[in-house]
Amino acid sequence: MPSYDTMVEALNGLKARGFTTDFNLAFDSVRCAATGVCLRAEEFEIIEHYRFEGATNPSDSSVVYGIASKDGNMKGVLVNAYGVYSEPASDDMIRKLSVHETPGN
């Protein structure tokens, strides 16, 4: 898995490797705003992830996820803040995403 120093580098690297759909967290799914396609937690896999902490405030942190639909039709990125700025999510989504947010990853 590549290593990136910034979130922009991670996003550009993932897009260059085919993760072209921009997903947003939508309580119980990830949603592509451009197409309206939604994937529930059981419909996608997290292929890779990168954690970034704010330079001046460690609580200003985000995770960039490279995700793919299990049917192989979509690959994309999801950027999610964690800590005080995290988005509301269902229990299933929190479990799926939090597995990849452990410190040191």
Question: Which key features would you list for this structure?
Answer:
single chain, 105 residues
Please outline the helices and strands:
Blueprint: H1 7-16, E1 21-26, E2 29-32, E3 38-40, E4 44-53, E5 61-69, E6 75-82, H2 91-98
Parallel strand pairs: 1-6
Antiparallel strand pairs: 1-2, 2-3, 4-5, 5-6
The run of helices and strands is HEEEEEEH
- Main β sheet profile: 6 strands, mixed
**Order of strands in the sheet with the most strands?**
3-2-1-6-5-4
Mean pLDDT: 84
Beta-strand residue fraction: 35-45%
* Whole-number tally of structural domains: 1
Principal-axes geometry comes out as globular
**Amount of helix:** 10-25%
What's the count of strands?
6
Q: Kindly report how far apart the N and C termini lie.
A: 11 Å
**Rg value:** 13 Å
Supply the helix-strand structural class.
alpha+beta
What is the count of helical runs?
2
Please mark out the parts with pLDDT under 50 across 5 or more consecutive residues, or reply none. none
Detailed description of the structure:
- This protein has helices at residues 7-16, 91-98; strands at 21-26, 29-32, 38-40, 44-53, 61-69, 75-82.
- It is an alpha+beta fold and 105 residues long.
- The protein has one domain (7-98).
- Strands 3-2-1-6-5-4 form a 6-stranded mixed sheet, with helices on both faces.
- The longest helix has 10 residues, at 7-16.
- 23% of the residues are buried.
- The mean pLDDT is 84.
